[in-house]
Amino acid sequence: MAHENGQERTTILKKVAKATKVPAFLGICIGITAGLIQALIGFGGDGAGGPVAYGFCVACHTRDMTNTLVNAFFGAALFAALPVLTLVGLYIGGRGSAHQQKEFRIKKSKWHVYLFYTLGGIGVMVFALFLGGCPYRAALRVGYGDLTALIGILGIIGGVAVGAVLIFKYLQNPVFRRDA
Amino acid sequence: MAEGWIPGDIALILVPVITLGLGLLIGYLAQRSGFCSIGGFRDLFLFKQTRLFFGYMALIAFSFIGYLIFWLIAPHIIDGFYWSANQANPFKPIPGSIPGLSVASYVILALVGGFGMGFLGVILGGCPLRQVVMASEGNRKSIFFVLGMSIGAIIYHGFILGLVQGWFIAAGLGAG
């Protein structure tokens, strides 16, 4: 009997482990926790601070973390909404999962690829801050009822379409390949 | 007005802890599933694959459901849910965006920002979240991407913000 129970539990665990590999599961998780976090902390207005629909954003939270550090160490006065550590959590969480899945592999590239990606990071950050968030916060803002973010997502779709055509044309160029 | 369930001064201390925990959870799940928003649109356009695309659609749908649930429980915290519907200006700027511009300029900025982010994201092989996860998988060039994002934040708030604001006001798109 106990043996059967154990077997049942392992099949349930396997089902849960399989469900976490579906991207839609993560989408549901981010959506619900974003609401929960806002209920806990209370963004906007006179709460602890930060704009509304601010539960999860890679670009904005990186901006906040960087600007908080720069302000603290160099005495600058750059805008930072909240002292967040999302980026650190993402890195540690992803690294833990990568080790667990045995997918952790150091991939080195040439220096000009590094330069290309650094400049790309600067560009993506500037464009993301024009829109007021990375694609994730744009999705949260659409869920919150913000029309500007919906226009931003239409812009993302247009940009991806143009980029996808370019990728299709220049797939042979190693710079554009994912494993370059 | 918009204070959460945790009192304001305690919440300010707890913000790093809560966001760190949320980051751990999302980073773990994102590595397992390969979640990527820009990659979702790319796979849809190039390969007609809908796996990642449905992930992003689920994010939009469930962010609405999540906010709706907590709006029903505590309407005073989910301040201004249906954001556009109850503002005098439906394209109200969010904190951190360029101040003192008109409605048209925020639409232009959102379109330009979205287009640039989608284009660069497709060229570089992933949206910001995917790049951070790839960095945690040991991909050196993604680490440089994240470094570039940090530099970009400093450049934006120190330099580009005022410059672009000047351009828009010179083009007659200032507020008022």
Describe this structure in words.
The complex is a heterodimer of chains A (180) and B (176). Chain A is mainly α. Chain A has helices at 2-19, 23-41, 58-74, 86-100, 111-131, 135-144, 147-169. The mean pLDDT of chain A is 83. Chain A is globular. Chain B has a domain at 90-176. Chain B is globular. The chains are: A mainly alpha (180), B mainly alpha (176). At the A-B interface, helix 2, helix 3, helix 4, helix 5 and helix 6 of A face helix 1, helix 2, helix 3, helix 4 and helix 5 of B.
The average pLDDT score of chain A comes to 83
Compressed to H and E, one letter per element, the order of chain A equals HHHHHHH
Shape designation of chain A: globular
Largest sheet of chain A: none
Overall helicity of chain A: 55-70%
Question: What is the helix content of chain B?
Answer: 55-70%
Low-confidence regions of chain A: none
The biggest beta sheet of chain B reads: none
Radius of gyration of CA atoms of chain B, rounded to a whole number: 19 Å
Key terms:
heterodimer, A: 180 residues, mainly alpha, B: 176 residues, 69% helix
Write the layout of secondary structure elements.
The complex is a heterodimer of chains A (180) and B (176).
Chain A: H1 2-19, H2 23-41, H3 58-74, H4 86-100, H5 111-131, H6 135-144, H7 147-169
Chain B: H1 8-33, H2 37-47, H3 51-73, H4 103-124, H5 128-136, H6 140-170
Helix pairs in contact in B: 2-3, 5-6
